[in-house]
Amino acid sequence: KIWGGGRDVKMARDLGLERFHAQPKWEIPAERVLERLPRASAIIVDQSEPFLGLAERRLERFATRVTLVQARLQDDWSDGLTRQPTSIVSMSAIHHLDPHEKTRLYLQAFDCLDEQGLFVNGDKVRDSDTDKYLTYLQN
Fold this sequence. Notes:
Structural class: alpha/beta
Number of strands: 5
Strand content: 15-25%
Largest sheet: 3 strands, mixed
């Protein structure tokens, strides 16, 4: 999921996402960003047609500020962008990618972001130490 938040966005909290993990699972992060930043626009990238349909319905009141792009993060999703993003935010998506796909995604994000752009990965990050990771999951 990708969107631009405007030049006044310097940190995740400026997007209103500092405590997103505590929000209901059905909330679409872009909804909070668009409510908080009236000059922001959103480009939502997702491979799921049902999710994009849900996003379209949920964000209907922001229709003039939202563009939906159906693409896989593993592919060249940046071709579907209609403008250069100033912020890229991913929520619960990157952990599904293998290490090579993650590297490619991060390179694409860096290449298409505005020079002073912000990248936020609000996702699960697995500890490289398997024992630590398993202990974390069990507690």
